[in-house]
Every structure is written in structure tokens, then in C-alpha cells.
Design brief:
Helix content is 53%, strand content 9%. By secondary structure, the protein is α/β, with parallel strands linked by helices. The strands form three sheets. The chain has a seven-stranded mixed sheet, sandwiched between helices. It has a two-stranded antiparallel sheet with strand order 8-9. Helix 1 runs parallel beside helix 6, helix 9 packs antiparallel against helix 10 and helix 14 crosses helix 18. The protein binds nicotinamide 8-bromo-adenine dinucleotide phosphate. Nicotinamide 8-bromo-adenine dinucleotide phosphate (NBP) is lined by residues 10-15, 33-35, 38, 74-77, 80, 83-84, 102-103, 128-129, 131.
Length: 479
Amino acid sequence: MTQSAIGIVGLGVMGANLALNLSHKGFRLSVYNRTAALTSAFMHAHGQGRAIAVADSLQDLVSQLGSPRVILLMVTAGPAVEAIIEQLLPWLDAGDILIDGGNSYYQDTDRRWRELAAKGIHFVGMGVSGGEDGARFGPSLMPGGAAAAWPTIRDMFQTIAAQVDGLPCCQWLGDGGAGHYVKMIHNGIEYGDMQLIAEVCHLMQHALGLSHDAMADCFAAWNGGRLESYLVQITALILRQRDRDGRPLVDSILDQAGQKGTGVWTAQDALDEAVPLTLITEAVHARMLSARKSERLAAAALLGSVPTRVPVAQRAMYLDALHDALYAAKLVSYTQGFMLMQSAATKHGWALPFGDIALLWRAGCIIRSRFLGDIKNSFARDPVPPSLLQDPFFAAEVKNAEAGWRKAVMLAVGHGIAAPALSSALAFYDGYRCAYGSSNIIQAQRDCFGAHTYQRLDRDAASHFHTRWLGDGGEEKLP
Ligand code: NBP
């Protein structure tokens, strides 16, 4: 019997489309789904004329694969992954390759990589982005884990990945949970980008009084410039969509954002790493606040007011400001995301290829956008700037956008419209570029109530001082 190059477990949205992508690119595969009816439906719809074999059990799937066996799990993260690994293990041999392509938590992947390595199994955690279409026609793939697996699986996954300028959006990212970590950051950035766009839409509609078609026209025009990106592109489409009664569909959609956890993981990781990931964290908080719909309705009745609109003559000026604000805040978001990855790389001993990560996200994924190539250029500089905001290109871009950004945030604040991501990005920027900030006061307060000591600008950095603030005001130098 001809053996398959890869076995896929899970024929949900992503598994089915990756299977079709692999098959289209000439890889013979075997498929298994827990619910057999889904497998039958898949084969009925797509099996004709394709080199796809059906397995009726995990044991059967393993028996259909060449050596070393390559198995891709495309199931819901968490207990399902755990259960399938357990069920597969009795049938696997040392050297076999198990790939988890779901949105697993990177620490779970790290643990599974270690546990399976002890049994001689090469475990790979591979972030997959691009949704249904990406999976079918070219996703962005972020593999990491057992490096020994990479030579075997590289060709297969680089072939089915999205391609830009002849480069596949699929590169090896490092051992352990590196691949799923980078996917987690990707999803965090996605949260931030979506929140920024939502805030800009809200300001366009409620502070500027734009029609949905006018808003769509703006996003479509912006997509032809610096802001060119998948999310800006689909926002134009979304704003044009009409309901059955001819009214904009978006106005009938409940304003409660769902979430599956990757944004929270990113924010939690940033807190653990002491990295100021303010924009993505605000985006997560905004989704949490949106979920309190009934409480917000009551608060609106008690505290709310209808925002006033800017005069029509000022619309064009404010639209330019919103464009610049969206662009500058996105730069801050990516700056923070890369800061977090740099910190995590040091902590976990990963040699994350930051420039390549930017390239991986240029196509096939939800956050694909024009300036990712400029991020790659920044990481190619010698020396690499301490952060993207200190890169000559991005520093000039953000300075150019600064005046409009401030106008947009003042528009939101002045009209009582929440724009937490746009404004927290500006606060980060102002804090970051401030040579002497406000923390001297915090250090003085800490020393005053808790004798926590402080360092002085005019003495050596190693010396610590305590002032008897509530006593005679004298200063003591501590050993
Ligand atoms: P779906 O919900 O479409 O499919 C889930 C699959 O998991 C089904 O095949 C289901 O089998 C299987 N499964 C479950 Br649930 N529990 C199982 C168990 N205990 N044993 C065996 N199989 C089990 O998910 P999807 O959208 O294809 O997503 C798959 C993974 O990819 C997830 O981790 C997701 O977060 C990630 N992801 C999704 C997207 C996206 O845009 N959808 C993008 C990127 C990554 P059944 O048919 O028997 O229930």
C-alpha cells in the first residue's frame, strides 16, 4: 500500500483546509476525525480524484504513514490535544514527528516537547494563522519545538505556506514552545490592531458623523498607503455590508467582543516579563468591558451623554488625524510586541529570528501589513536599535504622525468617546521619550511611608539613601 507523507487528525475548519492545501500541492495524506460523519462529508465533498486516504482510528492512521511518521493535530487546544497524544503514543516509534497546529498555550507545548523527547518523539508546536482561506491557499506558519523534525517537515510546510517575493511565510523559530509563543504574540498584535480600527470607526461615526459608506471609502483609500493591511481592507468591506432592510449590518451586531484566550495569555506573559505591553493589554480590557453589556446599558442611562459632532468643515482634518493616529499607534503596538518577544527569547534561551518573524507575517495571516518589511530592515541594522521606536525609519514615521495622533486622542477625550488603545499608545510614547519621568515622586513616596530607599542622580548608582521625611528631614546613606 502507498504510504502517506502526513496524517491529519481533526477535519474541522482548519484541518480540512490544510488537508486540501497539502493535497493540492501534491502531498499524499491520510485523515482522521473523531466524528466519522465529518470525515465522510469531507471525502464526499473533496475526496474525488485526490490522494487522500481515510483512517477509521488513530491506530489505522499511524499504520498508513511512511517512516518517520508525520502527524498533524488540528484540534481544539487543551484537553483534546492531551487526549490524542495519549491515544497515539502506543502506536508511535522513536523518531516519529507529532505536530500540534492548534492555538496551544506555549507552556503546554514546552512541557509536551520535553515529555515526548524523553520517549524519542519529536514534538513540534506550530502556530497557524490565516483562518480558513489562509489554511486552504497559503497560511503563515510558525513552527518550533524539536529541531530534529525540521529537515523532514520543512519542504512540506514551506510549500503550502503563503509566499512573498519567493520566500515562504514559514521558518523554524526555535525549540520548546517558541513557535506557539510567536503565534501568541501574533494573536495579541491582532487584538491590538482590531481594537485600534474599532476605535477609529467609532470616532468616525460618532464624533465626525460619517456615513458607513464614507467610512468604508476612507478605509479603502488608507489601504492604498502606509496602512495597507488585511484588517484595514476587510474593515472597508464590513462597513459596506447591508442588512436585509438596507441598513448597515454592523449597526445591528451586538457590541460584545468574544475572545478565546490568546490575548489574555499575551497580556499575562507581559506582566510576568515586566514588559509594558500597554496597547494589547488595553485591547483585552476593552473586550472585557464590552462583555458587561447590561451594566453598560445601566451606566449609560445614569452617566451617559450623546457625543457632540465636529463641524463638517473640520472632518477632513480629523480624518487625516485619525489616519496618523492609527498608523502611529500600530507602530507602538508592534514595538511593544517585539519588546516582549525579545524579553521572552532571553528568558527561555530562544534565538528567535526577529526579522524573519516580521517576514512570516507579511502574508497568509490576519496581521499582514505593509510595514512588516520595514521591521525586518530594522532587525538587519548593525547594531539593532534598542526598540523599533529608536529605529531611524520608524522614529521619523512616528514623528510625522505625532501631531495628528494627538489631535485624534484629543477628539476622543473631548467628545467623551473611549479610545483606550489609541490613547494608551500615545501615553506609552510620551513616557518612552521622556528622559526624566515622574517616578522620582513614586520613589520619594515609597521611601517616605516604607523606608524603601532611593538612588540619587548626583551620586553613584550603587548607593541607596533614606530620608527621615516625617522626622528631622535628614538623609542617611545606606550601606
Ligand atoms: P473546529 O472547531 O472547526 O474543529 C475542531 C476539531 O477538533 C474537530 O475536528 C473536532 O472533532 C476535534 N476534536 C475536539 Br473539539 N475534541 C477532540 C477530541 N477530544 N479528540 C479528537 N478530536 C477532537 O476548530 P478549527 O477552527 O479547525 O481549529 C483547530 C485549531 O486551530 C484550534 O486550536 C484553533 O484555535 C486553531 N486555529 C483556528 C483558526 C481559525 O480561524 N478557525 C485559525 C488559527 C488557528 P469532532 O468533529 O469529532 O468534534
